[in-house]
Amino acid sequence: METDIREINLQQPAEFEQWRQFLAGLGIANFTANEVDPVDETIGIFVGNQLVATGSSSENVLKYIGVSHTADGNGAYFNQIVSTLLTNLGQRGIFHVFVFTKPQYSASFQHVGFQEIVHSDSAAFLETGPTSINDYLAAIPKVAGPSSAIVMNANPFTRGHRYLVEEAAKQSQHVYVFVVSTDKSLFNTQERFEMVQAGTADLPNVDVVAGGDYLVSYATFPAYFLKTDKNRVRYQTTIDALIFKERIAPALTIKTRYLGTEPQSETTNVYNEVLEKVLPPTVQVKIIPRKQTDGKVISARDVRMAIKDDRLADLSALVPETTATFITNHKATLQERIRKGMKIDGN
Amino acid sequence: MEIKQTAMDGTLESSDIQITVSKGTNGVQIDLTSDVQERFGAEIKQTIAAVVADFGLENVNVKAVDQGALDCVIKARTITALQRALGTNAEPAWEVL
């Protein structure tokens, strides 16, 4: 029987149904729009009309890899699927590629050049390409003695973020502030990084560093950037927390992670709960109550709303002067992004 | 000559090798994954290193994922990946062939 490899169009109901049934038969069960819609490409190997292997990619993440156990005696279909996806991504300039998979498939991915970053009881997270987490860690400035860490998206950097950094800096010898690198927020990655740098420049024991692909990134934690259900968040945050605990903290001698309470975001709340459960005793977790102004917590979302509604006079209560200056200077660009449909009501 | 961009050639299928080359700062670094690493790892790396040397490159990172490729395949894949990375794939590399 002739074998061919071709694209599967998930927008076509018949093709979607064949694909879904094939994967469901392999125990893959999540076909919600949140998971399926971000998929950029799906390919399948067919013997006649029968699907025997499939795989998809979403940005730099491989998803929905499934191979019929009976048809794939020596892993040939698996290798062909992964190989084709990597070649296609390479043609779009994407060489650093991640995969979430079940722990029992980690070895198959390692066999085709992936390296495992971490695994939990229910999932493994691997990467391949010209750079790795070791290169990322090597590029971060090292300091002697214990450090603390804060991870923030800072969309934008508010007085609340500033308060959290200040408290951590008072209580610690040295603080790393990791700024989330995924570019899916109103303020782009470079803008957020610059605002955090400007807003903490007066604190000598604070280093601002990029979170890269390893901290609350689209690869490790897509649920942060998509509206999604609680269980999904819990599962993904566990991987994110493990990367921090097992790879990042030991390399940078981070002993404490500071978190802010988050009364307004369900996702961040679940994330905080998971961090408290996973990180200790390797990394101590300290929770700092949210800073309030006039009896109300400071929220980056309120800042974004003020920009949308052109209420810049309200900003000084919410953001440090450095951020206010940045917003005033870039008001037109930011409002244009909102008009063009950038979502601003998220975390 | 200098690597302009990351580039890849080859597949993960049986008897092939997938070569990814990218900018390096620390000499010629070859990272090899292979089932036959123990018996043939040194030879595979040597074949790749020889091609890199023919191109006159001093700093480059090579990631090689081998599925039992023959020497000539390793050489061909490395040449193509390097030419793509150098932006010279329109012209044959006579001096290397």
TrEMBL record, chain A:
UniProt protein name: [Citrate [pro-3S]-lyase] ligase
Domain Citrate lyase ligase C-terminal: 147-327
Annotated Pfam families: Citrate_ly_lig
Function of the protein: Acetylation of prosthetic group (2-(5''-phosphoribosyl)-3'-dephosphocoenzyme-A) of the gamma subunit of citrate lyase.
Top EC class of this enzyme: ligase
Bilayer-crossing regions: none
SMART domains: Citrate_ly_lig
Gene: citC
Keyword Nucleotide-binding listed: yes
Organism of provenance: Fructilactobacillus myrtifloralis
PANTHER family: [CITRATE [PRO-3S]-LYASE] LIGASE
Superkingdom assignment: Bacteria
Keywords from the UniProt entry: ATP-binding, Ligase, Nucleotide-binding
Single GO term (MF): [citrate (pro-3S)-lyase] ligase activity
InterPro entries (UniProt xref): Citrate_lyase_ligase (IPR005216), Citrate_lyase_ligase_C (IPR013166), Cyt_trans-like (IPR004821), Rossmann-like_a/b/a_fold (IPR014729)
Catalysed reaction, written as an equation: holo-[citrate lyase ACP] + acetate + ATP = acetyl-[citrate lyase ACP] + AMP + diphosphate
Its EC number(s): 6.2.1.22
TrEMBL record, chain B:
InterPro entries per record: CitD (IPR006495), Mal_deCO2ase/Cit_lyase_ACP (IPR023439)
Keywords on record: Cytoplasm, Lyase, Phosphoprotein
Recorded coiled-coil stretches: none
Molecular function terms from GO: citrate (pro-3S)-lyase activity
Main localization category: cytoplasm
Position of the signal peptide: none
Protein localization: Cytoplasm
One Pfam assignment: ACP
NCBIfam families named in the record: citD (TIGR01608), PRK13253.1 (NF009726)
Entry's family note: Belongs to the CitD family.
Function: Covalent carrier of the coenzyme of citrate lyase.
Protein name: Citrate lyase acyl carrier protein
